[in-house]
C-alpha cells in the first residue's frame, strides 16, 4: 500500500511501518517516550504494538479509562501530572495507541504539555484510522459539548495498521464505516455507491478502502488546514449528529451512541435538509436514507428527545451570529457548506428519519 506524504507528516500503512517509526524515534534525540492508551487497548492492542516497537528510547505507558465520557480536561490533567511525575520534559514524545478518543485527547495533551511536544498517532479503530487521527484536529469535551476545547496540531507520523481492527466488535467497525460513507457522499459518488451496499463490499481489501478515505480527507485538509472553508464539508452529518450524541451522552436514561452511529443519523437528517435547501433530488435522499438505515437501523427518539437534542445545536462550532449552519449535498459526491438552517427544518428532518 502506497504511503501518503502530507505537508507536515507521513501516513504509513502496514506492519513494515514500525521499522520507520523506530528509526525516527532513535534518530531524533528524544529523552522519553510516553505511550497513551486506554484500558481496552492496553489489553488487546498494546502487546502487539510493543512487539513491533524497535526503539532505544526509554518509555512509560499511561493508561486511562475508555469512552467519550472520559475525554475531558480532568483526564488530561491527570495524564499531564503523570508525565511530570515521570520526568517528562520538552524533548519527550507522546504516542497515542487507541481509537478516536485517545487520538483526540492525546494530540491535545501533547500540544499543551510544556507548550508543545511531538506526538505520533497509532489509531486502533476504524473511525480513528479514516477520520480522527488524520488532519491535525485535537480536542476534548466540556459538559458534554463535543471537542469545544482543542487546537490544530499535526503529528510527526501516523501509522495505519489494519491488524488492530481484529480486536474490534462489529459495532465499532460499523461506527467507523459511517465516516467512510460520509467521505463518499461529500466527495466521491463512485466510492459511496460501492460502500452503500455493505453486503457486497470486499472487506478482505479493507486497507485499500481505508487508504481511499484517507486520501479524500487529506485532499480536503491540505487545501484548508484550519477549517476556514472547504474543510467544513467533512462535518456533513455532524451538526445534527453531535447534538443527538451529546444529549445521549449526558442523559443517564439513554444508552450512549458511538460517534459514527450519531453521524449516520445526522447524515440522513442533513440529506433531508439538502433536499429542501440545496439541489439533492428526493430520490437520492430516499436512497441515502434507505442505505444508511439498512446498516445502522433507526435510533429511537421521542418528541422530548428531539427537543432536548436541539438544545445542543447552539454549541456547534460551525455556527456564527446565533445561526445554525450545516453542510449539505447538492448531489451525491458534491457538497456545500455554511448553509443556514432553521430548527424547524431540522425537526422535519428528524421526523422524516423516524418515519
- What is the overall pLDDT average? 96
Largest sheet: 7 strands, mixed
Q: Could you give the count of β-strands? A: 11
**CATH homologous superfamily of the largest domain - what is it?**
Dehydroquinate synthase-like - alpha domain
Number of domains: 2
In whole angstroms, how far apart are the ends? 43 Å
Shape: globular
Listing every helix as H and every strand as E from the N terminus to the C terminus, the arrangement reads EEHEHHEHEHEHEEEHHHHHHHEEH
Notes on the protein architecture:
This protein has 355 residues and is α/β, with parallel strands linked by helices. It folds into two domains: 4-168, Rossmann fold (3-Layer(aba) Sandwich), CATH 3.40.50; 173-354, Dehydroquinate synthase-like - alpha domain (Dehydroquinate synthase-like, alpha domain, Up-down Bundle). The protein contains 14 helices and eleven strands. A seven-stranded mixed sheet has the order 1-2-9-6-5-3-4, with helices on both faces. Strands 7-8 form a two-stranded antiparallel sheet. Strand 1 and strand 2 (10-13) form a beta hairpin. Helix 10 (238-250) packs across helix 13 (303-310). The radius of gyration is 20 Å and the shape is globular.
Amino acid at each position: 500500500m502506497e504511503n501518503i506524504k502530507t505537508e507536515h507528516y507521513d501516513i504509513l500503512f502496514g506492519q513494515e511501518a514500525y521499522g520507520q517509526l523506530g528509526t525516527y524515534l532513535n534518530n531524533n534525540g528524544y529523552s522519553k517516550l510516553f505511550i497513551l492508551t486506554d484500558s481496552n487497548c492496553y489489553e488487546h492492542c498494546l502487546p502487539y504494538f510493543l512487539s513491533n516497537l524497535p526503539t532505544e528510547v526509554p518509555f512509560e505507558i499511561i493508561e486511562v479509562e475508555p469512552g467519550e465520557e472520559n475525554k475531558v480536561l480532568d483526564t488530561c490533567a491527570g495524564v499531564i501530572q503523570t508525565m511530570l511525575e515521570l520526568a517528562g520534559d520538552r524533548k519527550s514524545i507522546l504516542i497515542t495507541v487507541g481509537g478516536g478518543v485517545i487520538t483526540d485527547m492525546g494530540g491535545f495533551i501533547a500540544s499543551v504539555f510544556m507548550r508543545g511536544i511531538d506526538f505520533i498517532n497509532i489509531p486502533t479503530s476504524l473511525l480513528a484510522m479514516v477520520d480522527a487521527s488524520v488532519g491535525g484536529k485535537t480536542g476534548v469535551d466540556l459538559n458534554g459539548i463535543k471537542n469545544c476545547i482543542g487546537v490544530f496540531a499535526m503529528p510527526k507520523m501516523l501509522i495505519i495498521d489494519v491488524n488492530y481492527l481484529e480486536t474490534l466488535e462489529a459495532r465499532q467497525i460499523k461506527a467507523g464505516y459511517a465516516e467512510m460513507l460520509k467521505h463518499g457522499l461529500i466527495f466521491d459518488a463512485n466510492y459511496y455507491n460501492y460502500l452503500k451496499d455493505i453486503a457486497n463490499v470486499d472487506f478482505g481489501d479493507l486497507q485499500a478502502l481505508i487508504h481511499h478515505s484517507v486520501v479524500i480527507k487529506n485532499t480536503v485538509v491540505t487545501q484548508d488546514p484550519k477549517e476556514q472553508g472547504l474543510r467544513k464539508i467533512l462535518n456533513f452529518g455532524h451538526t445534527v449528529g453531535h447534538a443527538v450524541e451529546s444529549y445521549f451522552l449526558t442523559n443517564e436514561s439513554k444508552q450512549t451512541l458511538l460517534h459514527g452511529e450519531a453521524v449516520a443519523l445526522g447524515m440522513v437528517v442533513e440529506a433531508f435538509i439538502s433536499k429542501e435547501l440545496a439541489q439533492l433530488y428526493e430520490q437520492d435522499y430516499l436512497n441515502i436514507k434507505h442505505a444508511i438505515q439498512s446498516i445502522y437501523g433507526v435510533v429511537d427518539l421521542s418528541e422530548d428527545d428531539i427537543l432536548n437534542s436541539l438544545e445542543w445545536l447552539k454549541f456547534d462550532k460551525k455556527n456564527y451570529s446565533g445561526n445554525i449552519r450545516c453542510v449539505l449535498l447538492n448531489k451525491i459526491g458534491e457538497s456545500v457548506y455554511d448553509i443556514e438552517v432553521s430548527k424547524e427544518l431540522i425537526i422535519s428532518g428528524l421526523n422524516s428519519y423516524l418515519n
